Write a sequence for this structure.
């Protein structure tokens, strides 16, 4: 009997320690947060919730492919609103939405107020009376298996894609502009409109006038830095993470500026000299600074050092202090430009 009681107690304790996740449907007060991945399918008046007079019926969308939800329901990631209409099933609103989970679809028609899932673009917009609250619908396309696509100018541009041209075409309600997008996944260089996003790890190597982009005369040449150690870029180019500016000078290859920068990848370096306006990579410190003419519009250059196995270092007072390091003292120095002093730092 004692053994049986012990087993029962252990089983009870284990059950209490591991609460079971609710699935299917549930009823919650309207002032309760809605769990991620759940939707509100109806609501009604109640006297059982202090602070609010409404209850929500919610459903776990993970087992669904379509659902009818209240217009104030959250729409889970990867779902879209395909229609909207009047219905009396939701307190405080007359609107409900039909939402659809995107699985194997390549294209889908959605209400103009639908979220556009990650990796999808708007390829057309037109009038259609299937969405209460708007007359506009959008056609969405999945870019997963595409290399190029024409989209409305208000379409999101997926990560890693760029705008290579823009022109007038009457396929998008509320705008006459469309963009041609290109996937940069297998590219090393590409010419883009000046308002194109620049993907992470890419830089602007030149800029010039070319009439292929509506609303601007400028285009940029972009280069992928993945296999580079040094590159010359326009002064308004982004500087990729882990790269530094080692010089700046005048060169007429970039519209709207005469300045270019030389960038260096610090991946295989432990020390490097940079312009004072260069970013300082994570884990690097400024160990000295001096006057120079090697950087256009900057009077100083910095010597940077990468902290690897060191436990102590001497840095200029304006150096970043890496995470996990502290200032243990200070000293006077003539090696840090006009600062006049530096810090001793140590790893903790």
């Amino acid at each position: 009997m004692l053994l049986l009681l012990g087993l029962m107690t252990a089983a009870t304790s284990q059950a209490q320690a591991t609460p079971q996740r609710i699935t299917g449907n549930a009823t919650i007060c309207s002032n309760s947060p809605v769990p991620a991945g759940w939707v509100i399918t109806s609501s009604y008046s109640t006297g059982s919730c202090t602070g609010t007079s409404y209850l929500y019926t919610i459903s776990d969308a993970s087992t669904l492919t379509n659902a009818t939800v209240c217009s104030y329901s959250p729409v889970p990631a990867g779902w879209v609103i395909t229609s909207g209409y009047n219905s009396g099933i939701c307190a405080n609103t007359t609107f409900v939405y039909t939402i659809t989970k995107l699985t194997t679809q390549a294209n889908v028609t959605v209400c103009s107020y639908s979220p556009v899932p990650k990796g999808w673009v708007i390829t057309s917009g037109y009038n259609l009376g299937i969405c209460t609250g708007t007359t506009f619908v959008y056609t969405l396309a999945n870019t997963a298996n595409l290399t190029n696509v024409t989209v409305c100018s208000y379409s999101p541009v997926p990560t890693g894609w760029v705008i290579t041209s823009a022109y007038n075409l009457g396929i998008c309600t509320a705008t006459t502009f469309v963009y041609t997008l290109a996937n940069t996944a297998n590219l090393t260089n590409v010419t883009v409109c000046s308002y194109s996003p620049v993907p992470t790890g890419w830089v602007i190597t030149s800029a010039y006038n070319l009439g292929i982009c509506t609303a601007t005369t400028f285009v940029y040449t972009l280069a992928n830095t993945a296999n580079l150690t040094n590159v010359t870029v326009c002064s308004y180019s982004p500087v990729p993470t882990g790269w530094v500016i080692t010089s700046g000078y005048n060169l007429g290859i970039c519209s709207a500026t005469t300045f270019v920068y030389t960038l260096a990848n610090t991946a295989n370096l432990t020390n490097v000299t940079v312009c004072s306006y260069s970013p300082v990579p994570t884990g690097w410190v400024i160990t000295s600074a001096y006057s120079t003419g090697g950087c256009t519009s900057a009077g100083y250059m910095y010597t940077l050092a990468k902290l690897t196995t060191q436990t102590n270092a001497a840095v200029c007072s304006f150096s970043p202090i890496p995470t996990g390091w502290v200032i243990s003292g200070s000293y006077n120095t003539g090696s840090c430009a006009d600062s006049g002093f530096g810090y001793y730092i140590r790893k903790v």
In short: The first helix runs from residue 2 to 17.
